[in-house]
Amino acid sequence: MNDQDRRSMPLFSISIVKKLTELTARQIRYYEEQGLIHPARSTGNQRLFSFNDVDRLLEIKNLLDRGINLAGIKHIILEDQKAKQKNDEQRNGLSDKELRKILKNELYQAGKMGKSNLRQGDLSRFFH
């Protein structure tokens, strides 16, 4: 399990989140209604918050303390999400399948016409 999966696990009840963030239950429910957080629900329909939800609530609280209204907070959070998504797409530009195909072609091309490649020895064990 990676760190992102751990941070996304719904663990905390609203009473614990209230203590961690110093927000009221009404404020937390309001931010959920506004689509700023998305807590999971237990089988008994109880809200369960993740570390990411708590971080988001603390970010909202900080922005409110700086005098930014809810519309501004929504805009900031939306822009942050878009930037993160764009970074993830750039970082993960090639799928594993595409990378494997490129490396396999590179390996086969290296043996033709007397060419050699530094990766040839490293990669050959994976493609035979």
TrEMBL record:
InterPro entries listed in its UniProt record: DNA-bd_dom_put_sf, MerR-type_HTH_dom, MerR_fam
PANTHER family tied to this protein: HTH-TYPE TRANSCRIPTIONAL REGULATOR TNRA (PTHR30204:SF65), REDOX-CYCLING DRUG-SENSING TRANSCRIPTIONAL ACTIVATOR SOXR (PTHR30204)
Keywords: DNA-binding, Repressor, Transcription, Transcription regulation
CDD domains cross-referenced by the UniProt entry: HTH_GlnR-like (cd01105)
Residues annotated as domain HTH merR-type: 11-79
Name this polypeptide is given: MerR family transcriptional regulator, glutamine synthetase repressor
Any Pfam family the entry gives: MerR_1
Species name: Lentibacillus halodurans
GO molecular function annotations of the record: DNA binding; DNA-binding transcription factor activity
Superkingdom of this protein's organism: Bacteria
